[in-house]
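User: Please predict the structure of the protein below. I'd like the answer in structure-token form so I can feed it into my own downstream comparison script.

Assistant: Understood. Taking the following sequence of 312 residues as input:
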Amino acid sequence: MTTSAQTVIAPVRAKAAADSATVRRKQGFQHGGWFVAPFLVLFTLFVIWPLLRGVYLSLTDANISGDNPSFVGLDNYREAIQDPLMWETLGHSAYFTLLVVPCITVLAFFLAMLAHHIDRAKWLWRLCFFAPFLLPSTVAANLWQWLFNPGTGMVNHVFGLDTPWLFDKSYAMLAVVICTLWWTVGFSFLLYLAALQGIPDHLYEAAKLDGANAWHRMVHITLPMLRNITGLVIALQILASLQVFDQAVVMMDFTPGPEESTRTIVQYTLEEGFTSYRVGYASAISIIFFVIIASVAVARMWLLRKREEGVR
């Protein structure tokens, strides 16, 4: 009799629990939806709508005059794919990214290690390393433009050089890279510093008891514990570096640089849209560039998921 009653009651209880969970989810969505709504409205207005508008314009011959555009299908995309200047500027952005990402990752890590282990005036070191990131891009670019000036700049004067940093294609992109490293390393430094503070001290204490020196502790404890944050830093820096524009344009006085060596894909897109007045073609280039950046982000998420599955 007891077994029979339990057989009848168990499904009833399970159904009641499921109904209660469904009600709680609906109530949570109803209440939480009001908090999410402002973000969704702004995201739709400033991200989704411009993206859809850009896709539409890329299929037309729209110009900046505002005349009614004509539908041209995929002609803009065909032209962009066959445009050597687009691939050249994309190569400049990729070259800049290849220079910046490894340097900024390593530099941010060692600055974070330094600030984490210094006992005196920690706040001062952290402020010095992070402060440049608070500057607007134009301020940082103008500062380094003055520092790299061949005649009056401090770089050549201090190191006894006579290098035309901003007027020779062999050095122009390197100058932009140095400016970017100084300006943006503070953000990655802060991420690494926060991650270092989250590593339990007992791991290092146990390693010391086992006779591990500082190098072994860094290789076998610090670096593995920072693996996820390193992946995040690399991904964020790749996405940011591919979109380089401000510092390159300002340092080169709003020109493509010596022999067009610092013209990036973003600058070329703006030139086509606002100088050549070809909004449709510029939109097609921006959509192609968006697909490239989205592919990088998706690849990073896929690799991260595969690594997490491998750990499990």
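That's the full token string. Residues 95 and 173 are 9 Å apart (CA to CA).
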